[in-house]
Amino acid sequence: MFHTEPLAYRMRPERIEEVVGQDEIVGVDTPLYKMIQKGHVPSMLLYGEPGTGKTSLAFAISGSTNKEFYAINATTAGKKDVENIINEARMTGDAILFIDEIHRFNKSQQDSLLKALEQGVITLIGATTENPFHSVNHAIRSRCGQIKQLKPLTKEAIIELLNRALSDQEKGLGSLNVHIDDSLIELISDTTGDGRTALSLLEDIVYASDETEDGIQVTKETVQYCIRNKGFSHDNKGDIYYNLLSGLQKSIRGSDADAALYYLARLLEGGDLEAISRRLLVIAYEDIGLANPQLCARVLPAIQSVERLGLPEGRIPLSVVAVELSLSPKSNTAYKALDKAIKHVQKGVTGDIPVHLKDAHYQGAKELGHGLEYKYPHNYPNSWVYQEYLPESIRNMNYYQPKELGEEKRYKNVYEKLDHLRQESRKKQS
After folding, report:
1. DSSP code at position 310
2. ∠278-342-281 over CA atoms, to 5°?
3. How many degrees, rounded to 5, is the angle at CA 303 between CA 302 and CA 304?
């Protein structure tokens, strides 16, 4: 029996007991489950990656209540659509309004919901792939008693979802008598934490498999082929994209090469080489810095190689850079020192530039005394001579706090030696 609707659509849970993989949010022991069982549905915002079940949860909540249910998508609906639903809800009584991708609504469209929410005309369930604290108006958030983050489904949850679809005679694939080894179901579950993608992949696999007298026989070759050609990607303007970039940088900073390679792989599937390269270059100078300046200098040529090669070959230099950055000594002392200096300047912690450092390359500078007592370091042994460079009011300031890591050990020794010579010279002059 072939259906016109996709398997993922047909397998949407009709009641909250059928929701898979979100027990922390709507499991039988949660407050939200108990509220819904008693007929009370609070306004809420659901956010998470695509395929985590936001829409499914909204429909399951609707199926577990006797309330009118309206569903719209913010990419196609407008303010007028919302007003029409609110007017209809005023006549029918308390209703649930589900708005998918609510972050797509502008402020005016979101504000059109406020009065109906306050009066209890509608209960709002908003779904978004973006962090609602960034993408949804404060006025809407404050009227939503629940803000729930849905996590990607675990392997076990995906397996449960796939087996349910295989056995369901009415909505699933049960009537097709599909023969598939548990190991192949596991292979599919290892591919994604996205329930919709997993079900779509299973549907493709079943319809790509050969029919026998005993039903449909699924082979490993068919599963592998469909997985390879699924084309997983992500929205490179969404919250997930920035979380992946953040995961990459924090994994490298934490010296976890395996995690760095995992996030790099996910970003590469999104296809945005420019953003990956830019982030790796930032990581080199932000997190590696003076502990391994030679590596910092090598990152840009590697990135240029990636730009020249493109994909898939570009993944090779990227993998080398990601592993080397992960396993390198780390130091952020240089830019932290600069940030400290910038804060001082912004707060007005400044002073007059020492007169011997002032520009002397103009007529009349000598009359002002500018540059007259400047000592040219290259004229002295070791190219160093004592003289003050900071303004008098902050001459004892140490912005730079070196670490004893990698190459920075050597810089630390030089820095501390020079600081000691300055202190000794000051004592002699006082």
Report:
1. -
2. 10
3. 90
* Tens place of pLDDT per residue across the chain (430 aa): 456 789 988 999 999 999 988 888 888 899 999 999 988 899 999 988 877 889 999 999 999 988 889 999 988 888 888 888 898 888 877 789 999 988 888 888 888 888 888 888 899 999 998 888 888 888 888 888 788 888 888 889 999 999 999 999 989 999 899 999 999 999 998 887 788 889 999 999 999 999 888 889 999 999 988 887 665 555 555 566 778 888 999 999 999 999 999 999 988 877 778 889 999 999 999 999 999 999 999 999 999 998 888 878 888 999 999 999 999 999 999 999 999 898 888 888 778 888 888 888 877 777 778 888 888 899 988 888 899 888 888 888 889 999 888 888 998 888 889 989 988 888 887 7
DSSP 360: -
Nearest to 17 by CA among 36, 41, 40: 36
DSSP 207: H
Query: Model's pTM, two decimal places?
Result: 0.59
CATH 3.10.20.30 fits 351-429, yes or no: no
Fold annotation for 22-149: Rossmann fold (3.40.50)
Q: Which CATH architecture has domain 155-228?
A: Orthogonal Bundle (1.10)
Assign domain 239-327 to a CATH class: mainly alpha
Q: Domain extents for the chain?
A: 22-149, 155-228, 239-327, 351-429
